[in-house]
Amino acid sequence: MSNLKIFSEKLNISNKRIIVRLDLNVPINNFIIEDNTRIKIIEPFINKLIEKKAKIILISHLGRPKGKIVKEMSLKPIFDYLQKNLIGKISFYQGEIDNNAVNASKNLIPGEVLLMENIRFFKEEENDDENFAKNLSKLGDFYINEAFSCSHRKQASLHKITKYIDSYGGPLLEKEIQSINLILKNKKEPVTSIIGGSKVSTKVKVLLNLIQNTNNLIIVGAMANNFLKFKGFNVGLSLLEKGTEKIIEDIYTSAEKNNCNIVIPLDCIVSNNLNGSPKLKSINEITSEDMVLDIGKKTVGLINKTVENSKTVFWNGPAGYFENKDFSSGTIAIAKKIGENSQSKSLISIVGGGDTLAAIKNTDYQKLFTHLSTAGGAFLESLEGKQLPGVKVLTN
Predict the structure, then answer these.
(1) Which of 63, 236, 276, 354 is the catalytic position?
(2) Is 170 labeled as catalytic in the residue annotation?
(3) pLDDT, tens digit, for every residue of 166-202?
(4) Is 334 in contact with 314 (CB distance < 8 Å)?
(5) Annotated active-site residue in 134, 138, 199, 386
């Protein structure tokens, strides 16, 4: 990725129109933003562009309106938020991407911001339409992709637009790519990957690629139920994915070949339903009425010991049904250990995935990680070894 064109402070952007593609796809309910993490992350960069007297045009999508105007998916709540939190004046453009839009961008005073309405209100966006991309490019003199989390999609404002305008990756996009390279290329060993989530099938390529790049692979969350069942343990009423035996067999075969140690739970917290009372059991005590909802103390101890002996940790996916506080302690314990070691032993820690971030959102540990990725699917596709379309077009 060394030939990636990254936006530099040296670029003279004063009085220039800068298109910035962001990912402001945040949860909004009844026009109220429920989680502003993704917006807060980009505020410092936008404020820097304002200070440098650029004319800033912000583009983002929200939800899946499928090329139609859907009132509930308007960026208006985000506009209201930015109006309060940015250091410059911001206006909201809700028209077509035509000469009026170009004039609106040209009429900005240096240091002003223009937020475009949800780009997915235009069907041409998801079709990666050539003409639409060309029209979008007319809004600016430079283009910056600061939406790594969307860069696995071939869409006009991420992909084709770069054909018509001088284009760069932004600081956040660069940081995401650097953090992936800390796992795959410039890694400090031993490397430990902790993977959770509910489905093995959606992460099989990631797991197989991680096995080649990691010393320890720890499986937690509902995904671990499939591994326990494969090893002959009863997992009762726990969430399982059908037909994963062959996948898991391949994972163990590959792990043996690549000298990667696979860790699965030794004990767990069970209940007879999602809101039932928690009970600690070792994995051979699980009955047909039990539902595995978190990892137990011995498993936490084993994970802590593995993290203690690691120089790099990648974590994606909670360890249990964290939505219920009774089953969130495994996830919090992992966050605590990774956070503390990042601070005290300079452990390189890369933590990502929407559910993982949601699970640790109100703890203090997230501030201690080396890198907190908000990129979800794009991050995982990179870990599969794929080159993302939105990133590929930014290379020289």
Answers:
(1) 354
(2) no
(3) 999 999 999 999 999 888 888 899 999 999 988 888 8
(4) no
(5) 199
Which SS3 state, helix, strand or coil, does residue 70 take? Answer: coil
The reply to whether 199 belongs to the active site is yes
Q: Is residue 120 among the annotated active site residues?
A: no
Q: How far apart are the first and last CA of the chain?
A: 10
Question: What pLDDT is recorded for position 358?
Answer: 83
| Exposure string over 4-17, b if 16+ CB within 10 A, otherwise e | ebebeeeeebeebb
Q: Which of 17, 38, 203, 336 is catalytic?
A: 38
Nearest residue to 112 via CA among 134, 86, 94, 131: 86
Does the annotation mark 317 as catalytic?
no
* 17-169 CATH pick, 3.40.50.1260, 3.10.590.10, 1.10.340.30, 1.10.10.10: 3.40.50.1260
Weakly modelled stretches of the chain, pLDDT under 50: 1
CATH 3.40.50.1260 residue spans of the chain:
17-169, 177-383
d(CA 188, CA 174): 19
**Which tens digits make up the pLDDT trace of 214-230?**
999 999 999 999 999 99
Q: Residue 156 to residues 151, 161, 202, 246: CA-CA distances in angstroms?
A: 11, 6, 26, 39
What CATH number is given for 177-383 in this structure? 3.40.50.1260
Cα-to-chain-centroid distance, residue 125: 21
